[in-house]
Amino acid sequence: MNTLKGRSFLTLLDFTPEEIGYFLDLAADLKAKKKAGVAHRMCEGKNVALVFEKTSTRTRCAFEVAAADLGMHPVYLDPKSSQMGKKESIPDTARVLGRMFDGIEYRGFGQEIVEALAEYSGVPVWNGLTNEFHPTQILADFLTIREHFGSLSGIKLVYMGDARYNMGDSLMVGCAKMGMHFVACAPEKYFPDPALVDKCRAVAAQTGAVLEFETDPVKAVRGAHVIYTDVWVSMGEPEAVWNERIAELSPYRVTKALMEAAGPQCRFMHCLPAFHDLKTTTGQEVYEKFGIDCMEVTDEVFEGPQSIVFDEAENRMHTIKAVMAATLCG
């Protein structure tokens, strides 16, 4: 699809349903090739910069392995390895990187940063996560849903918890684009930004998508194909918000009872990392302060037969590979 070559991947709002479907089809094809041991070095000799102002396990590994599989050389710039925004402006950094690299990934803070990189670099820029959007994650989620249900058509996805930031925003956008049934389930103060909701309603009017906003968890999940959640406190937020989030979002924890209310067809998804036990430093600290042994999901659900979180995590790499291949190599 030659409409994708040379383009940046900043938010799914920029792509048609057909283009998103192409990314998913290409990801499935590249995944099959990798599983079969078939080489697919479509971008031999290209170099890509991976700019991380926020660290990540899945995003970094996915981009590095995908780049290597495609025949590219990735260069990782961690928060201490770049002067972007400190001693050098973002436009200046973009123009320098654009002279040396064929593509740039950015994971960090405001959406305006990744958009400035795309504006000034002259090469494709890929959003690995901003405060507002996380589009590569949504492609991985949708590929996983297709693998388990055969299609995105008719899928009801319920997002439980704080839907005001990148995951709630991006899932709503993705579901609107692909004609799915999206439900944000949370206290009203945690619903997505009304301006973005209006944009998604306009998209849904064209695709047939259904967008709902519900405060009752049992009502929200009835008949759901997917219950999706994320951490209650995002990277960079102050410790002071923990008490408020735990108090207000605990009724929206994904439990076995909630999965049963949805029905046996329902699968559990999470973009990870997840606080489902006490095997992390943060989990242990929260237990000591608040007396809870899990947050957004119970260990019983996370480790249970309806959980497909590790299929989803693997698919980060396959879908990121498709994005880079389509936008760099056609």
Concise synopsis of the structure shown:
The protein contains 13 helices and nine strands. It has 330 residues and is α/β, with parallel strands linked by helices.
Secondary structure: elements and pairs:
Blueprint: H1 17-36, E1 47-52, H2 58-69, E2 73-77, H3 90-100, E3 103-107, H4 111-121, E4 125-129, H5 135-149, E5 156-160, H6 166-177, E6 181-185, H7 194-207, E7 210-214, H8 217-221, E8 226-229, H9 241-249, H10 256-262, E9 267-270, H11 281-290, H12 299-302, H13 309-328
Parallel strand pairs: 1-2, 1-3, 3-4, 5-6, 5-8, 6-7, 8-9
**General form:** globular
Overall average pLDDT: 95
| Beta strand % | 5-15%
Q: How are the strands of the biggest sheet laid out side by side?
A: 7-6-5-8-9
Spatial extent as radius of gyration:
19 Å
**Largest sheet data:** 5 strands, parallel
Sheet/helix structural class: alpha/beta
Question: Which residues sit in consecutive blocks of at least 5 with pLDDT less than 50?
Answer: none
User: Could you give the order of the helices and strands?
Assistant: HEHEHEHEHEHEHEHEHHEHHH
Count of distinct strands? 9
Q: Count helical runs.
A: 13
